[in-house]
Amino acid sequence: MTAICFYFQVHQPVRLKRFSLFAENLPEDLYARYFDDELNRKIYNKVADKCYLPTNTLLLKLINKYNGKFKVSFSLTGTFLEQTKKYRPEVLDSFHALSETGCVDFLNETYYHSLSSLFEDKLEFVEQVRMHADELRNLFGVSSRIFRNTEALFSNDIARLVEELGYGGIIAEGFESILGWRSPNYVYSVRGCKKIKALLRNYKLSDDVSYRFSARWWNEWPLTADKYALWLASSPGQCINLFMDYETFGEHQWKETGIFEFLEHLPHEVFKHQHLEFKTPDEVISENPPVGEIDVPHPLSWADIERDASAWLGNNMQRECFNLLESLERKVKETHDKDLLHVWRLLQNSDHLYYLCTKSWADGDVHKYFSPFQSPYEGFINYMNILQDFKEKVEKF
Predict the structure, then answer these.
(1) Residues 75, 128 contacting (CB under 8 angstroms)
(2) Is the pLDDT of residue 374 over 80?
(3) Which residues have C-beta within 8 Å of that of residue 187, sequence separation ≥ 6?
(4) How far is residue 324's CA from residue 326's CA, in Å, rounded to a whole number?
(5) 130 φ, ψ to 5°?
(6) What is the pLDDT of residues 247-273, one digit of tens each?
(7) Quick one: what percent of the chain has pLDDT higher than 90?
(8) Which CATH class is domain 2-294?
(9) d(CA 205, CA 225)
(10) In the predicted model, what is the mean pLDDT of residues 219-226?
(11) Chain centroid to CA 179: how far?
């Protein structure tokens, strides 16, 4: 049997206000000073209506229709969960309903969707991972054995640290640079680790849905459920890992593209192939031994053509902001002020650095699509102004 393993990343960043160091009458409350609550609420409500609520409703319907044979998994970032509780609690209720079916895995990650795994001192990373695990236990009563780092950032060192934290599996990108001739459709061990298993994204089949589904220039358009199921059936291996942003459904691929009809009919078409079954990541690592080892000495991600950390740290503007942010850790934590710590961690959202990317061509278009700024340079000035202002607040504390 070959397992079809769906994993959906669910994240909303906390977007920054347009900020000037010379502005008058700035709020003393740092959250109100730096973050655009009105914009965050507006975007969240739009995505909730277009994606979260209708897709959760559909998934619950499919799980019930197929008597628990249809299974999926999610990672819900801490910033997504905070905004859900603040703006649309009914979205959290719909995730509760999915959780209660027993057919859904919730994966752990960094609470703030941060790049703390790339900090020189890994304590902040560990603290955010534990925060996220605590939040999942509090909200859903679940503990995960699977870890998915921010934007699937992965390396031997990260996997070893995650293993030390007690996880049995980790998500990574199934890219040719680490696989060579091998297929991503198998479970792998990791160089330098003892037990942890890596689940690798089949990026071609994942991107067929998340990026190319409505692309009329694509020679496989339109993508139908029966065609896609045939592709899955003809892909040998232990598992086919289909990992993508949850906003694929209804937000990136609009309702009018037929994406919901595709998802609704996919289980029926998959079950026509007797060697295919849906499994959660936890089930996949429990039931399959690793067939080989991957060696990833440098950070790998699922972003951009390079599949490395350059989407966030590829230019001097990004690195300057990242280094300043990292340098504030000791001073922030020495204040023992929870609000100050929370704001510093919100400023770690990887999205803030993503908006500063200056790549061109297709990758640049993706960065521009998500950015609230007119240019990376505008984003840099704004982000750096906030970091400098925050630094002054910390030093005066």
Answers:
(1) no
(2) no
(3) 197, 198, 199, 238, 239, 284, 285, 288, 289, 290, 291
(4) 5
(5) -65, -35
(6) 999 999 999 999 999 999 999 999 999
(7) 90
(8) alpha beta
(9) 13
(10) 98
(11) 22
| pLDDT mean over 161-166 | 98
With a cut of 70, say whether residue 198 has pLDDT above it: yes
Q: What is the pLDDT of residue 363?
A: 44
> What pLDDT score was predicted for residue 364?
41
Residues tagged active-site = 151
pLDDT at 22: 75
Task: Report the 3 state secondary structure along the chain.
Answer: CEEEEEEEEECCCCCECCCCCCCCCCCCCHHHHHECHHHHHHHHHHHHHHHHHHHHHHHHHHHHHCCCCCCEEEEECHHHHHHHHHHCHHHHHHHHHHHCCCCEEECECCCCCECHHHCCCCHHHHHHHHHHHHHHHHHHCCCCCEECCHHHCECHHHHHHHHHCCCCEEEEECCHHHHCCCCCCCEEEECCCCCCEEEEECHHHHHHHHCCCCCCCCCCCCCCHHHHHHHHHCCCCCEEEEEEEHHHEECCEEHHHCHHHHHHHHHHHHCCCCCEEECCHHHHHHHCCCCEEECCCCCECCCCCCCCCHHHHCCHHHHHHHHHHHHCHHHHHHCCCHHHHHHHHHCCEHHHHHCCCCCCHHHHHHHHHHCCCCCHHHHHHHHHHHHHHHHHHHHHC
Q: What is the per-residue pLDDT for 303?
A: 83
Confidence grade of residue 33 (pLDDT, cut at 50, 70, 90): very high
Band of the pLDDT at 307, cuts 50, 70, 90? confident
